[in-house]
What we know:
- By secondary structure, the chain is of the alpha/beta class.
- It contains 67 helices and 45 strands.
Amino acid sequence: MSRKKTGRVLSTLFPKVKLHNHNTIDALNQREINGSISTKYFPGVWGIFICFILSKRENQQTRLGDYKLIKMDRQKFIRPDRQMVRISREKLIIPEREAATQRMLAGLQRETKTADIAKTEKTANENIAEAVNAANKNIENAVNTAATEHLQTKQPEIAEAANKPENGIVLACEIDEVINYALVHNGASVVRDICIKNTSETERNALLLKIASDGELMEDFVCGIEALQTGEELHFRNLDLTFHVGYLASITEKFSGQLTVRVLDGETVLASEKINITVMAFDEFPGFQYTPELLTSFAMPNHPAVVSLIQLASKYLEKWTGDPSLDGYQSGDQERVKNMAAAAYAAIQQKNITYASTASFEACGQRVRLADAVLEQHFGNCMDLTLLYTACLEAMDLNPFMVVVEGHIFAGVWLVDGAFADILVDDPSQLEKRMAKGIQELTVVECTAMCSGQNVSFDEAVAMAKRRVSNYGKFYFAIDVKRARSRGIRPLPIRVQTANGFEVLHEDRKEKEVTGGSDSKIEIFDFSDCTEKAQVTKLTQWERKLLDLSLRNMLINMRVTKSVVPVLSADIGSLEDALFDGEAFQVMPRPADVGVNPAAESQIELLNKLGELSEFISFESKHKRLHSIYSEKDLSTSLTKMYRSAKASLEENGASTLYLALGMLRWFEQKKNAQARYAPIVLVPIDIVRKSAGRGYAMQMRDEDSQINITLLEFLKQNYEITIPGMNPPPQDEHGMDMPKIFAMIRKAVMSMEMWDVLEVAVIGNFSFSQFVMWNDIHNNRDFLEGNKIVHSLIEGAVDWDCTIPEEVDQEEAYLPVTADASQLHAINMAAAGVSFVLHGPPGTGKSQTITALIANALTKGKTVLFVAEKRAALEVVQKRLAALGIDDFCLKLHSNKATKKAVLNQLRRGLEIDMEGTKTDYEQRIADIHAMRTELDAYAKALHKKRNFGKSLRQLIDLYESIPETKEQVKFPVSDIKNITEGDLSSQKNHLERLISAGRSIGHPYQHPLAAVKRAQYSQHLKTELEPAMQNYLSVLDNIQAQMADFAASAGIKNPVTKAEWNQVSELIRCMESTEKMPAFLRTTDSVEREFSVPEEYLEKQEKFEQKKAEMLSKWNENFLSQDMSSYHAKYEEANKKVFFLKGKAQAALVAEMQLFAAFPVEVEQIPLYLTEITAYQQEERKMEAAEAELSYDWKQILKEHPTNEELYSYKMKIQNQRQSMARFAGVLQEIEARGILSTLVRKGKALFSIWNSMDAAERKVAELLELKFCDEKADWIENRKALCGCILENAAALKDWIVYQQNVDLCRKNGLAPICDAYEKGLPHEVVLNVYLRSIYRAIILGVIESEPVLNGFTGTGFQVQIGQFKKLDQECMQLTKEEMFYRLSSQLPSVSDSVEVSRELNYLRRAISSNGRGISIRLLFEQIPHILQRLCPCMLMSPISAAQYLKAENDLFDIVVFDEASQLPTCKAVGTLARGKNAVIVGDPNQMPPTSFFAGNSVDEDNLDIEDLDSILDDCLALGMPSAHLHWHYRSRHESLIAFCNREFYENSMLTFPSVNDRQRRVSMVKVEGFFDRGKSRVNEGEAQAIVAEIKKRYADPEQKKQTIGVVTFNVSQQTLIEDLLQEEYQKDLNFDKWANMGEEPLFVKNLENVQGDERDVILFSVAFGPDAEGKLSMNFGPLNRDGGWKRLNVAVSRARCEMVVFSVMTADQINLRRTKAKGVESLKYFMEFAQNGKLRGDYRQNEAVKNQGIKAKICRALADAGYTYQLNVGHSKFKVDIAVINPYNSEEYLLGIMTDGDSYCQSANTKDREVAQFEVLKGLGWKLYRIWTMDWWDDPQKEITKLLGVLERTGCEADCECPLYMRKKEEQ
């Protein structure tokens, strides 16, 4: 087949692509590609098409629109270095696309895409696939045929040339086939590549490459080649040839020419090739298939003809605007830019140019009329006028562009100073979005509208051009002139025509025929305020998280089906305004003369192109009529279905889902995806009502606000990182939503997205999604949500209510129909007390049991409860437990939003049928009995373990006492010191005592120490210098006083004193001598001292009274006046009174004046007699006192001078009496001394002796101050003793400092109550036992004191206590059964009755009617709303999922007293808040260490390696972060062997769970099986070896009769491994039906689950497939999928805590292969440690084996007794804080324990609950196989040896029983 024929074939297949490749196909090589021949060189377009065919052969079904187009280099408009297309065996090398072909094919691709948009998906896909298959086949056949013919033609020539021995040079050329002035003017390189290869065996030197043309086209090009080696290949690319530009400018018609390329060796031509080229005229455009960018060269803005046009345009501009300035974009006013464009349009339009076509510009070489030609000839076609108009715009300093569509071209202009990113833009939406209302960054103009014969205004021309742009199927590309200029494409220079041409008569248009200025105003929206005005609140965030972002959601991907009704609207904004204003529209079928062709165009796209219908639709809309695209029948069907659906939604969900969607966003999933999708933008809530059968349906807006499709906004944000600010709230106008601005904002946001745009259409539909009811709960009920205290706190981020837990919360009696441990009971009481809290429930701690008891207790106390769980299984577990309690008739289960009315009505009917009378129980009496017994049992534990003042409990103190070695010595501490002793006192005493012992050791021992008299407690440096002088002085004084005393005694004739008492007697004698000498004789000799003192005492008493009177008188009168005779004044007064009236007054006044001279107060005449009498009496008394004084003896007068007052005289009298008494003792000695006449001499010597004595006292004080000495004066010769002491101190002065330090410690010890032990120490108690004696003595004293003060301890016996426990256990069982009866009685008593009230009676009648009619015509939600009062009395407990709560319960606060959430760690907050708000208080039950909420199952595909991004926030985490109170479940019950939970407890719960030790604790139930195999990481992501091993293990257990009884679960790390194991098991099921029945038909069937969905499940045996491991090449990646992510360890925690009896881990790797240095993930670290535990059975930090016995007290002594008796034991058995204190190992089976010994120590006191402590824990341990024996502390205190004897007896009996059961023992017995 020839090239031309092949071209025709390709042109037939692609009619839009004009192929003009005239080059010869250079060479073909034979190769196989899918059985066909291959090519070597296909230059130009050929290569591109062949690449298309060959690259798609393997996928013939691929649509043409999916072909990946190779973008051209935008740096230059000229094609870059174009290499030949080479198809080799290894790969296909494709050059960069030629611009023309690229754009043509892009048009084809868009046609395919647009066709796909226009058609329904099925039809479009089928048609495209068929067309593409046919095209592929035809193209391939044509090219293969052409290639074969060319190969057959060309191959002999190539072979012949290669085999010529005379030259051996092969030449291949790639040269452009078209050239014109524009190409050369813009620097195009014609020669792309010249290849010269030496195929000869000789080297070629000094060669020449020469290129020449025929004619005057170019200058010859010559290039030298220095050498060409054998086999060498040289390339000459982009050669710079010199063309004659003057010649090219003169060409007026195109012609064909040749370029000759030769390789010369001197004059010899070694190789030569001639290339045909087409030389085009100056004004000829090569065509779009070559270089479409070159078209911009033909727009010549500097041409004089253009200048004349813009001068004319300036006049029009001045006429329209008043300003002729052509100022480009300087004004920043888009309206002015548009008027400038209109002025240029008017200027050209005025020239009255006639339209005249030329040859198609799609073919090679279209002639272009340049600006001068157009204006001179007055002819032009679309390209001519577009180029002229573009030149005018560019000359105005505007940025024009040209739009190429099928068969046509027109212009456009930027209204802002902008440009496209590339020269060529093939996405028409880039234009449409920028032309949209509110944005209007550019506009387009139909240039042929300027021609004569058409009176088309500028605005009309714009509208015409816009319609062409909107026809995507015919759009090719737009050429941006500014971008082309920036890339170096210059306008052609001006060519002046000098020859005379034909003259044509021409006249300009009349002014009235020329366009006016643009009347349409540009409306530019201000986007500066398009920011998020409303704060994104928690409510908004919750809403968004509830949104469904999958393609199933109509709000993301709206599909046109009969469930939606597209309506025709010419103006979406006006429609929204009318609805907002309350207008109603009649929805009508499509107009009768309008047909719909779904195969031609998509119905959504059709709505956006009304065309001629626009005017009719606008007219109908004004009359409130909306037409759909459906026929009358289809419309009625659709609207009826829609109406019913909306009604059902309103009844069932409380919210209508019927909306009018205004505006659709057309979007594409991927660039290469041709399927358009549509998403609503604005949702207007509407109602449709049927007015009558004849009038159809009417539509009006509901009383709700219109809203932006937030689902779409969130979808764009998450999937495409497109954020549209300013939508919260959306823009508003005076009639609701500002629709144009909203559309403009969205267009602006998606401006860069290819083919995306806003379609201004309207569609009626029900828009909902799976979580709509929960979303609606938040969206439409914000006040309701904020009315709940917890939800409000979650919104605010801080607790804003009083969440203090009442102190009496655990004092309230709970109704417990089931067993509850202390932690469970605490949670139950908290809930009943109205506390909102988080309940932490680690694996296996009885969450369901606790919830059941919590609900039962709350219901019995009259509260209403809503139990919420997202999983149906969780609801069913609690429901079954409630049913077991007999109260299921009061509990309504509504898990699914598809719950049937029949089931609900049946439940309510059963409630109505319950007997309301019930049976009254004696519950209260039984509760009182058990409470009293519990109190009695608790009293012992409380007294024993109560922390007391001394810092420890009595039990702890006894342990300490028993741990102290026994001593013979004991000291007694006073009861007063012990009674209130504190922990600080004990610690302080011990510290002081230890320091005292240390100080005692430093001095040797305090007993009989030579420095014992030194009591100084502070050492000072001056002591060294002052001590010896002071001691010497003291000794000297002692010697002196001793001599003086001897002299005095001899003189007095008395015995020389020795003792201190004798010295004191001598001292007293001396004082008596002094008294004898000084005392008056009459007093010394009188027989009555009292008589002698009576007279002076009486005198002093009178004198004291007189002195008081004298002081009083002197205060009134002058002293001299008082000494005068008052008789003269008496006479004057009497004389004055005798005078006549007026003289009397004068005389009296004179007397008053006279007396006033001596008075200190006003003298009154009437009082003068009294004054005179008083003075006279005073004078008489004064004379009496003078007489009495005269009567006193001389001695008394002398004595009274020394003792002038009564007090002093009395003291003197006492002194005399004392001296007389002392003198009486020495009367004989004194008489003798007086008789001898030596009294004065002895008195003098005595005074001298006292002086020396004072000196001794001073010296003694000095010494005492230095050393704080304590003298022992009871010794015989005290002077000698003191002298000896001084000598001893001087001898031991070197040890004085150590002694003082010791004294310091002694003082501290005595001050701290350690006097008894200090005394014992100083009496010789050895250093070594002092501390032990103290501790045993003080502890024993404290213990005895406590026991004496606590009757419950004082009278305790273990035997009696065990009897009480048995009684309590029996009573508790009876009470639990009675609680069930009491619960039923109380719940049935509150059932509604018709006699309760009118409202209740009405609701009961309504309910009975509903039951009798099976709920016909009423929804569940409506039923609940009609019976609000009786509903909660019939069903005070409801069990629901979050979605069912939102659907069936009205949005009202305080509907329930308590809302209980189960598995809250997996419940997203957004789903929980609506339900939470319906209750007063909430209990959030879950485990923050288990699985978080995840969107794992939300979509069709899951990225298991990136699960962290799919995790959500849970209500549990948010409540914990809020700081809500917490309660914790502590006791673990699931695992029958402690090793099954030990790892989780240690690794994830910090050992906080209390687990029960296993009787076979020395065995392990977590094991690991090493499997041979590998993990197929990159492909299937499975581990076949592990899967097969697990299936084999299941089969093995099935075959074992014992193991067959155990249930099995399989846990895998990923879904793929899960699927593989399920497939393998399915194969086994098919082989063995019994195996299938065993695995799947039991109460707990075999399950296979992965990490994401196994939470909540448990089985006896868990088989765990790690799956991950080394790959087939042995490489181990540290990426373990979800474990590597944050929180991955939580998934591991769930997976490894599911087993009750055994767990087997299957893995192809071992723990040591996990390298923690390569990863920091906690999940991976935990996996490594778990695998280590599975391998060797040891936990990290496990210290159970033979823990130290120190400070174990009682247990230590028991252990020593056991060891002495020959038993081995394990101390503190258990991995958690709960231990079996001592476990005695079975001597015949070391893997088991013979007996567990429990004391009432730490494990005993951990439970505050009586039942836990005394019954439940023991029952659980016995259930695990333990045999237990108890030792009570009080029994041990009374008689330890007795308890040891009893224990050994029990062991002997238990051992005998064990021996009889032991096979080894039986064999030994038989041998004997």
